[in-house]
Amino acid sequence: MKIIGREHEQMELRRLFDSGNPEFVMIYGRRRVGKTFLVRETLGKDFCFAMTGLAKQKREEQLLNFQRTLARHSKRLAKNTPADWFEAFEQLRTLLEQSKMKRKVVFLDELPWMDTPKSNLVSALEHFWNDWASARPDILLVVCGSAASWLVKNIEDNKGGLHNRLTAKMRILPFSLHETHLFLRYKGIRWDAAKEAQCYMTMGGIPYYLNLLDKNIGLSENIDRLFCKEDALLADEFQHLYASLFTHSDEYVEIVKALSKKKMGLTRNEILTQTKRLDGGSLTRRLKDLCECGFVNKYYAHGRVETLYQLVDFYSLFYFQFLQPSQKKKQIVWREQMLTSGYATWCGLAFERLCFAHIPQIKHALGIAGVSTQTYALYKENAQIDMVIERSDKVVDLCEIKFTDRPYALSKREAELFSNRMEVLLQSFKARRTIETVLISNQNAVRNIHYNGLINKNITLDDLMNM
C-alpha cells in the first residue's frame, strides 16, 4: 500500500534526514491517524533501530520487548534482557556505534506506553541524548505516540535535561476532504462528492477507518458493517479509542459526552457542573489532553470572555448521536436512520464541523488565502451565525452553512433572517466593518431573486475538496 497525501510531512521528514545534524523529532496525533505508517513509509529503509511500546504492560515486559527488538539487529548485544532503561539505551548506543549506516534512524513508536510506573524511561532517554546522541551528526531520533499529552509533558515541555532538546515536532492531523478523496480513489471507491462528505462526517479523515471500507458495497452498507451491526468490525471502537490513550479514560469520556450535547461547546465551569466527579485541577489536565490529541478544540468566541471547549472529533460525535443510544435498544440500520429527523439535524451540525475543519480551503475559495483571519461562530439571543471570518483587511465574511439533499434555494423568510444576522454582526463591532455574505453548501445554490440580492459568494463541496 502506498502513502496517500502527507506531502508536507514527507518533505519535512526527508529534510530532517538530509540535514547533516543530530535531530530529535517528536511526532504525535490522534490514534488511527497514520503516524507509524507515515514514518515507516518515509524513513523505513533507513531504520537502524525501530521499536514499538507494548500497551498496558509492565516494565519487565517492555524491557524484554526491547531485548527481542535489539536481537533482530545484533544477537551478540541482546544476550540478556537489560535490567533497566539506562542499560537498554547503553546497548542501543553500542549498536549505533557499530552500525555502518551513514544516517542512523532510531524510531521509538508508542513511547508513552514504555513509561511504566517508576521506570525512569525519560531520565534514561535524556541521558542517551545529552551524553551521546546530541553530538552525533549521523543520528535521527524519532519518538512517536498517540498519547500526545504524555509526549508534550515529558518531551516538549520537559523541565529537566530534555528542556529545549527537540529539533522538530510534527502533529499528524486527519486527512482533509481532498486527501480522503484521493485515498478512496486509490482503494477503487468512486463515490460522488456528497457521499464522500457524508463518509467524512461519520468517521472523519482517519486513514484506519477509511482503509476498512469495502469498495463493493455502498456507504450505508459500509457504515452498518463497520459500526452498527452487533458483530460490526468497529463495534467496540469508542471504548478502545479512549482507553488506549488515557488513564482513567471514563473521566475523559464523561467530558466529551457533556461536550457532545452542546453545539458551540461549553466553558470550563459548565463542564465542571456537568461532570460531578472531576475537580478543577483534574479537569484542566484532561481538557489539555483532549486538545492535544485533537478530540476537542479550545477557542474564544466573539464577545465572550471565557474560553469555550468544543468536541470536534467526527467519529465521537457520530457515536454519541447514533451508536451509544442504540446500545440500549436493538441494533440500528443506517439506511433507516437516514430517513429520520435526527439524521437531518446531525447532517447539518456535522457539515458545519466539516467546514470549520477546512478553513484554509474556504479562504482559498474566497481569494483571501494570504490574509490573516480569525474564524468563529457567533451566538446571540437574536441571531445565530454559523461562521464568521474576521479579516485583517477590515472585511468580515458572514457565512451561512447548509447541507441539503437538493440544490439549496434561499426563501424570502431565510433571506430576512440573513439580513438580520448582518445587522447583528455589524453591531457587535466597535469599529466600522464591511460585511460580505457567503453561502457554504454541499451543492450549488439556486440563483433566485433572494440569492441574487443578498449572497456575494457560494462555496461548495468542490471548493472544500480542492486542496
Provide a descriptive summary of the structure in words.
The chain has 467 residues and is α/β, with parallel strands linked by helices. It has helices at 7-17, 35-43, 59-71, 85-98, 111-114, 121-131, 148-156, 177-186, 193-203, 207-211, 219-228, 237-243, 249-260, 268-274, 280-292, 314-326, 334-337, 341-356, 359-366, 412-427, 449-452, 461-464; strands at 23-28, 47-52, 104-109, 139-145, 168-171, 296-299, 308-311, 373-380, 383-391, 395-402, 434-441, 457-459. The strands form 3 sheets. It has a 5-stranded parallel beta sheet with strand order 2-3-4-1-5, with helices on both faces. A 5-stranded mixed beta sheet has the order 8-9-10-11-12. The protein has a two-stranded antiparallel sheet with strand order 6-7. Helix 4 runs parallel beside helix 6 (121-131), helix 8 (177-186) packs across helix 9 (193-203) and helix 16 packs antiparallel against helix 18. The longest helix has 16 residues, at 341-356. The protein is elongated.
List the SSEs and their pairings:
Elements: H1 7-17, E1 23-28, H2 35-43, E2 47-52, H3 59-71, H4 85-98, E3 104-109, H5 111-114, H6 121-131, E4 139-145, H7 148-156, E5 168-171, H8 177-186, H9 193-203, H10 207-211, H11 219-228, H12 237-243, H13 249-260, H14 268-274, H15 280-292, E6 296-299, E7 308-311, H16 314-326, H17 334-337, H18 341-356, H19 359-366, E8 373-380, E9 383-391, E10 395-402, H20 412-427, E11 434-441, H21 449-452, E12 457-459, H22 461-464
Parallel strand pairs: 1-4, 1-5, 2-3, 3-4, 10-11, 11-12
Antiparallel strand pairs: 6-7, 8-9, 9-10
Helix pairs in contact: 1-2, 3-4, 4-6, 7-15, 8-9, 9-16, 9-18, 16-18
